[in-house]
Amino acid sequence: MSEPTHTNHLIHETSPYLLQHAHNPVDWYPWGPEALARAKAENRPILLSIGYSACHWCHVMERESFEDPAMARLMNEHFVNIKVDREERPDLDQIYQNVVQLLGGQGGWPLTVFLTPDQQPFYGGTYYPPTDRQGLPGFPRVLQAVADSYGLNQEGIAETVRQILDGLGHLSTFKEVAEPLDKELLDRVGRALTRHVDPVHGGFGRAPKFPNTMNHAFLLRHARARQDEFALRMVTLTLEKMAAGGIFDHIGGGFHRYSVDNRWLVPHFEKMLYDNALLLRLYLEAWQVTKQRLFEKVVRDTLAYVRREMLHPEGGFYSTQDADSQGEEGKFFVWTRDEILAHLGEDVGQLFCRAYDVTEAGNFERGRSILNRPGSLESLAARFGMGAAEAEAILAGACRKLFEVRERRERPFRDEKILTSWNGLMISACAEAYTVLGDEAALDAAVRSAEFVLAHLLRDGRLLRTFKDGRAKLNGYLDDYAFFAAALLDLHQATFDRRYLDQAVALHERMIAQFWDEREGGFFFTSADHEALIDRPKSAYDHSIASGASVATQTMLRLHALTGSAADLTRAERVLRVFRGQMEHNPFGFGNLLCALDWYAETPYEIVIVGERSAADARALLRAVHQEFVPNKVVLVAGPQELGELPAVRDLLAGKGQVDGRATAYVCHRFTCSAPVTDPAALQAMLKNIEYRTGNVE
């Protein structure tokens, strides 16, 4: 390869996204003292560009604008240009996404914001084309207009800045309310959300469609607690349609980011670690409710993808896979009919093409097809004169063969950053896959990844944000502490290794010290000693992932149930009261906090098994516990000799022993416990028949 013509200040970064721009003719800087000092010294406005490595339109804007020497000259002449990886700096992304929305834009990536030398925003948007196009101004026109305005209209810019800063302040200002945190609120919100599910294709609203995992997780809880069959059907419909659609990778497993259409056919093809972590848990919960074989298959296929393609050899999960390969979005994933027939032969190829919607014309660009399953297996088998089991076996073999063919293609780029928060999400998902399905490989991946984070991203009791190329850096954010502490709790619930509980408690206490707002309640997104920025956001709104505040609230409720911590219960109540009005009036953005409210209002079930963890009878009881969907629960397993040696959970264990020397389970709720149970089938039946509205344990 030839030597690059240009090299800018990004060359020393570890972020793959920043390194992708290190040879642009734009004089990019990373966010930091050098760039900010230059802007002040030269009184230049800052052009802040935020994106991430798997972002398709970020690549488009780079090709069209940032690699163009004439565009770069214009940028370099008028601005100090700063490039930010939103996965490394979600604080900057959150602040300036809010700014663009306050300015009337939609937000998204690439994010393009213009700042004064003091980091104060006065104009911004997202993607700009190289010339005026489809109602969007061309980037050169935007650059010149902003530069002229900064030079000639300082008074107008100062007024715009004032209005934006006022708006940011309002976005982070919340007050506790006195209205009850009750089941009636959950009922109203659950019914409201259900009415907005697409009854034909599932999901919320029209195109584009995102998984909205947190809202569906809440609807599962609503359906269980209220015996709402329609709500349950809307969730399972969504999961069935997603599993059949092009948003799911039928050859390699795992989910793409979102669908550009309303029926889940055409995705944006990037794969994000967090989407797959959140969807794994949702499909596991749906399997607990329905026992649908499809849901288990999706889980196992997705886990296989994650372990195969997203796991560092030493543990730790990578961040993303690109949408593009060889400069084309989706090229790695799509097929032509001729390719299918050439690799599978005429008979199997015809069956496969019919099953996966591969046609001569194609359902994507230039005669290519995105694999999806529009029809039932039974009707397909009947059409080809065979049984469903035979057709399924043939298709499974065909998928394995096409996987081998696809592996010879040029692969999409993989961003190998290891982010603490996203690892927390996947560790939790893998731990749950072990408890629900008994997947030992998933548990191994979870344990190794947790140990990786503890070894490489925990320093002097503080979490760091990101690890790449042997370097860990950047202060952890609320999401890092909340998601990883929750993951350690999930590992404790999977293994009952006391070390994970102790580490979760220690990180949780550090999170309280650094992020809790003692004066007004709630959690700030950045720590108390974080770099000073124009805003210190505080929110519980879910975006692509659950909000850190909602996960932290769930952890406080779980720790209260496990340890009796009254302070954690009080803080959780404060968070719920601070955001109660928003949960009621805008439930779409608060699905995960609604799950926390569900835990609080229903109160958790405490399941204690007295027996040796490794013994067959104790393991059989544990399997029974996790076969049923009881989302609000804590589980504890302790040998008879350990009952007095666990001070943190002594109250849960008090008065409980074995029956006839056998592993024995107790199901407790609201200070009342069931009779001891030694039979796994009886325990599973008890959990299946829990009556949530009255809290009875039958």
In a few lines, what is going on in this structure?
The chain has 698 residues and is an alpha+beta fold. Helices cover 50% and strands 11% of the residues. The longest helix is centred in the middle third of the chain and has 19 residues, at 388-406.
How does this model look, in words?
- This protein folds into four domains: 9-171, Glutaredoxin; 183-325 and 415-602, Glycosyltransferase; 333-408, no CATH class; 605-688, Glutaredoxin, CATH 3.40.30.
- 50% of the residues lie in helices and 11% in strands.
- It has a five-stranded mixed β-sheet with strand order 1-3-2-4-5, sandwiched between helices.
- The longest helix is centred in the middle third of the chain and has 19 residues, at 388-406.
- The radius of gyration is 26 Å and the shape is globular.
- The model is unreliable at 693-698 (pLDDT under 50).
